[in-house]
Input
Amino acid sequence: MKYLIINADDFGYNSEQNEAILDLAQKGLITSTSVLAVGPKAAECEKLNNIDISVGVHLAINSDCQENRWQSLTKAQSLGGKTGLPTKQSDLTFKAKRKDVLAELFAQYEFVSSRVPVDHADNHCGTLYGINGRRFYLDAYSLCEKFSLPYRFPKTDGFLTRQMGREMPKPVLAFQQMIVKKGEEKGVNLLDDLISNPWNIERIGTYENLRDYYINQVKNLKDGVTEMFLHPAKPLSDEKTEWTKRVFEYKLLKSGDLLECAEKTGVQVVSWKIFDII
Output
């Protein structure tokens, strides 16, 4: 059976992100969202109450830009202290302390779960996936084990191949399977596959190109539980920038084309609650 979770990431990023996600959630055009607890508009997640949608905690130990850095909830010095969360993976590699990361993840979960029920966890920018050479994935698993949360990490290698645009070398695939095994040892439910468009706006070019990418992914979905995550948002300006990709994704989700394609191809669109059933 093919199951598809349609997730909108980065709730809390800004007003444009929140407004788009709330609109899609209220209209039943997405099945999941995840809240960026360190985002400036994160507290608005209370608006998700009484909407039939899965809500996750979007765990973040980095900031997206150098200016106006997001602040960690714990203010741990190894995570930037008062200057804000680091913007470089290398800062996490050489400065972050595991005990501080674990405390921050728990603080972010508490921030979100105290405002709206949480039923899964995922990660911003892959900082908890081992790509910085650190074992922070174990800390993410500890959180998920504690609160019985499924976690965004794919058990198959399709996501890596699509994101990088090439087949992955054997050591990378072995590392992925090691992370999968660690999660399974802790009893954490993981995704079978994970889909998101990896291209920048220059390569995307047009809305139609973005739409066709996602439609083709739905048509070629494999058996198991797959999450498709997008970052829908309203425009910041009329200028074409990297933010335009988020605007295109909002337009796509509003169109209902993904849901229509899923229905035609026998894909069952579900929320993260599917892990309570299968």
User: Anything to note?
Assistant: The mean pLDDT is 97. The chain has one domain: 2-276. The CA atoms of residues 39 and 89 lie 19 Å apart.
